Amino acid sequence: MACATLMIQGTASDAGKTTLVAGLCRVLARSGFAVAPFKPQNMALNSAVTEDGGEIGRAQALQAIACGLKPHTDFNPILLKPGSDTRAQVIVHGKAMTALEASEFFGPAGKNYKALAMQAVLESHARLSKQYQCLLVEGAGSPAEINLRENDIANMGFAEAVDCPVILVADIDKGGVFAQLVGTLALLSESEQARIKGFVINRFRGDLSLLKPGLDWLEAHTGKPVLGVVPYLHNLLLDAEDALVPYARQSSSKPRFRVRVLVYPRTSNHTDFDPIRLHPDIDFDYIDIQNAADDVLIGADLLILPGSKNVRADLATLKDKGFDKAIARHLRYGGKLMGICGGYQMLGLEIDDPLGIEEGVGSSEGLELLPVITELKPAKVLANVTGELTLGSEAVAVKGYEIHCGRTSVLGKLKRPLWLLDERGASADAGCISDDYQVFGTYLHGIFDTPEALDAVLGWAGYRGEGKAVSLDEHRERQLNRLADTLEAHLDMDKLKSLFL
């Protein structure tokens, strides 16, 4: 039996493509289908390390989990990671190949890039087609972006190349859902319009009977069926592709342990903090350093500097906005400070980029809170890590992954060595902790995913409450099943399956 392919495209970014694909992956996997996710080209700063030693978008790793699979580079053959507003690192089949300015994407270099990228995309699709019964493909942004349609590989260009049907999803919560759908359809070519086999309306709140006249009009006007209206799922917290997703906690009269994560222009892998956001006793918030006053950190118990795709530029922004002084004040008051990946590099004495790996040759003074120096190198470290973390007196289970260009060296001998032991028992270059025990840096993304490790970090930071960390893996499974149950209840699954199976 030939592999069947169905593509989910959206009227805009954040229309619900990632969530719909993840949910449908779980629906089909529960029904016994050998299903896999696929996204030809992704642009995101949240990424994951695959079982074959590469890097893909975090959303495709989530979708793989929904299928019961381990992430693989073929699920997302092209990943673009923005380092600035005009420049992005190009990752092909999991490996960083080059960096291009936005203008280069549309010049001769861009034409060559798109030809090579399409070849990589089709190679991955062909390999997956031999392994699975069906592929669920996620588009990128909107297929109706006029300036991006030439040599497109992310939306209709791919759909036409592999001759697959398309479902178009729109977000009604933003308003103007009928204009979104009809307008998108109108901007496509006739062959592309014919490829769209139905619509899904996402994030609906209210009485569905009030929407029905509009649905009837939409079907009559376009000649295409509405396959379902998906309700707004409050507090659906799944690994985000890129955007910071709000998560509303129940109010509490008792004081909570306060954790603040500083957000800079090129923050990466903020999914690291999902387990903290789920903790019952944590008052969690993201702090946008470009728009917040530095006094917003007053009263925090734990500050965290997350990863960054452009460490020196983000560090400069942090200093320009006065948050280096706010961090120093936080430490004087006895607060704890943690850095992950790029945040760990910022905590050191110096970050040196002799080859211009990120955005230009140069060197930057760090926050000088840990006795480490970092040099950025062309070869990226990509590794999944499991083992034990010794932060206090006892070792606890930990798992996570490393994605970084920096090589960080500790100067001198630490009074309190920090050990991360891999499954073979050998020490890994995990990070370090300051002699006064106030500042802790590590390269390990996902360090909080293991409840024991999160409890250990919170204990180090001063948390003395009775609440325990939740298992992110168990939470993710519950959320994926909740999503799949909702889709089965609100989509015409028989009609949807008939489109491609």
SSE arrangement:
Layout: E1 4-10, H1 17-30, E2 35-38, E3 41-43, E4 47-49, E5 55-57, H2 58-67, E6 78-82, E7 87-92, E8 95-101, H3 102-105, H4 108-129, E9 134-138, H5 156-162, E10 166-171, H6 177-186, H7 190-195, E11 196-204, H8 208-222, E12 226-231, E13 257-263, E14 267-268, H9 274-278, E15 282-288, E16 302-305, E17 307-308, H10 311-320, H11 323-332, E18 336-340, H12 342-346, E19 350-353, E20 362-365, E21 372-390, E22 395-410, E23 419-422, E24 427-428, E25 431-433, E26 439-442, H13 451-461, H14 472-490, H15 493-498
Parallel strand pairs: 1-9, 1-10, 2-9, 3-6, 10-11, 11-12, 13-15, 13-16, 16-18, 18-26, 19-21
Antiparallel strand pairs: 4-5, 6-7, 7-8, 14-17, 19-20, 21-22, 21-23, 23-24, 25-26
The CATH architecture designation of the largest domain is 3-Layer(aba) Sandwich
Can you identify the CATH superfamily of the largest domain?
P-loop containing nucleotide triphosphate hydrolases
Tell how many strands the DSSP assignment holds.
26
Indicate the structural class: alpha/beta
CATH-assigned fold name of the largest domain: Rossmann fold
- Intertermini distance: 10 Å
Mean pLDDT: 91
User: How are the strands of the biggest sheet laid out side by side?
Assistant: 2-9-1-10-11-12
The main pleated sheet reads as: 6 strands, parallel
Shape: globular
Outline the low-pLDDT stretches: 424-428
Radius of gyration computed on alpha carbons: 23 Å
Report the sheet-strand fraction.
Answer: 25-35%
In CATH, what is the class of the largest domain? Alpha Beta
**Overall number of structural domains:** 2
The percentage helix is 25-40%
- Counting H and I runs of at least 4 residues, what is the number of helices? 15
